[in-house]
Amino acid sequence: MNWTNTTAGAAIVAFGGLGVGIGYVVGQPPGPPTVETVSKAAAPTATDPAAIPAPAPTERTEARPSADGDLDLAALPTTDWLSMYDPDRAWAGYTLLFYERRVPMLVDMNGRVVHGWPDVRAVGRARLTPEGNLLYIGVDDSLVEVDWDGQPVRSFNTGNSRYFPHHDLQWAPNNQLLGIFRAPGEPTDNILVIDENSELVWTWASGDHLGDDLLGDAFKDNDLTHFNSVQSIPDNPRARSGDTRFNAGNILVSSRHLSTVYLVDRNTGDVAWKHTKGLDWQHEAILLGDDVPGAGNVLLFNNRYHSDNRQSEVLEIDPSTNEVVWRYTDERFFSDTAGTAQKLPNGNVVITSSRGGRIFEVTTAGEIVWQWTPPYHPMRSQRYAADFCPQLAALPPMQTEAVPNRQPKPYIDEALYDFALSKEVMKAKIGGKKRRLLAKPNNCHDLMLPGKAMLVFEYGFAAATDESDEFEPNGNVMVTLARPGEAPETIFEKSVSLETDGEWSRERLRLDSSWNYVEAEMCIRSSGADRTQETRDQPGFAVGAPKVISGYRPGRRDLPRVTGNRTKKSKATERTLQQRQLEALGYME
């Protein structure tokens, strides 16, 4: 396993509406949730790294140019995306985030871009290090390190190897690279550790260690574990008090599809601790270090994907008792997939609600003191101190200005008015385009409608692929809305004909202002048939997955589009690799 060094003497780096929720110390009302300790599972010792075939190294001598041409990050209207900021209560720093989920950039507390890497295209995670370098997972399955100016330092390509990286990686002690890897065709994930000499020094194959945990009702057979975060835990009070389970260097990993967080003993490979109770497809499990309050506790983003009320939460757990000691939740907060939470030195927490469409900072009492709502779903963010690296420290002193709430009502996460979740949608080719179709003809969901709501949906006919296939060239579709306890109102109804309406149509319905910020049941009923993975391309009438849009969300029509970093020669290969990454990240099946 070899990194390709391209810069002599380069430093080693790591990957690269004001509403009040409920943030409270558990036990000071409401009462503590039910969380129980799960017994330690027996596991074999760590796998011999020699058993893992080494991938071929890659050569790279210069950064690849952007296929999008010059991307001027500083020209983006990022300050307009800051919807509120309270300088007196927020923790000032620079936030590393992504433009269009791919291009890393640093913004100050007023949303101004202070630095960026316009030629980088990252997947999943980017991390800044004290040296000011950036390490990230590339769209071609490479691990790439660049310096502050975007110049390549070294790279490591897994594209032709048994493994590909996904979701997360970080630097462990002794300049070792720690990451999540998957072998194509295998249903479980692996944790690999690579030292600064590019040698594979440790691997942990979850399929060999999790035993009966893998026998449960997983999301799908080819993705049993779906690890989404990994951490080499820091020194902490629990280890110093003699609890060796929490020794620095042990590895904490979050398994989405097992709804479990595991702590792995680095020396033996045993599962030293795990927590399951109350978790539902959680993300970003982090054991807190001495630099923030609550050192030794575990902070995580609990998505609650399967919950009926569509409400996520951020939990802080005392791992010695498995009790939740702090929780943030709010009826307007929901991200069914993805998401992160980061504890700050003043006790505040920065939350990335990826499917909710925002990054925001809350106090321990649950008050929002900073909120950034870009016109796309934000990926993992990280707040850094102003003196975290020499390059940040050299910037002019940060000028901060209070930004009052720009919305008349509290922000509502997009996932709360997203009519169809991913499990309710099928993809089929209609009219030469892949479209997202409702899997069932009759669908009803309770939504929290935003301000200035507009409903956008499509309908039409999947054509027969064979002359012998007959289908009814007519259909009908009806949309209703109902407030709790009231009769439904029909807001759209139409009989559709292939002859008069064509193959595919789109409707845009601006909802009356009486529906602003209202909880309502939306039903879409049609004459279409059920669609499964096996029958998704069947001919006949179909309704596309509808989308509710808020007029308060910033627009993206005039923003530059990020398409990737592909050369013509490598386009097909890298498209396959990118699809593999997106499948691992949970964005496609």
If you had to describe this structure to a student in words, what would you say it looks like?
The protein has 589 residues and is mostly beta strands. The chain has two domains: 330 residues, YVTN repeat-like/Quinoprotein amine dehydrogenase (Methylamine Dehydrogenase, Chain H), CATH 2.130.10; 132 residues, Galactose-binding domain-like (Jelly Rolls, Sandwich), CATH 2.60.120.260. It is 5% helix and 36% strand. It is built from four helices and 37 strands. The longest helix has 15 residues.
Question: In terms of topology, how is this protein built?
Answer:
Elements: E1 4-5, E2 22-25, E3 82-85, E4 94-99, E5 103-107, E6 113-116, E7 122-128, E8 134-138, E9 142-146, E10 152-157, E11 164-172, E12 176-182, E13 189-194, E14 200-205, E15 227-232, H1 237-240, E16 251-255, E17 260-264, E18 271-275, E19 283-287, E20 298-302, E21 313-318, E22 323-329, E23 340-343, E24 349-353, E25 358-362, E26 368-372, E27 382-384, H2 390-393, E28 425-430, E29 433-438, E30 442-448, E31 453-462, E32 474-482, E33 489-497, H3 498-501, E34 504-510, E35 519-526, E36 540-543, E37 547-550, H4 571-585
Antiparallel strand pairs: 1-10, 2-22, 3-26, 4-5, 4-27, 5-6, 7-8, 8-9, 9-10, 11-12, 12-13, 13-14, 15-16, 16-17, 17-18, 19-20, 20-21, 21-22, 23-24, 24-25, 25-26, 28-29, 30-35, 31-34, 31-36, 31-37, 32-33, 32-35
Computed structural class: mainly beta
Sheet with most strands: 5 strands, antiparallel
Instruction: Predict the CATH topology of the largest domain.
Output: Methylamine Dehydrogenase, Chain H
Unreliable segments of 5+ consecutive residues: 1-18, 29-67, 565-575, 585-589
- Mean pLDDT over the residues: 84
Helical residues, percent: under 10%
Number of domains: 2
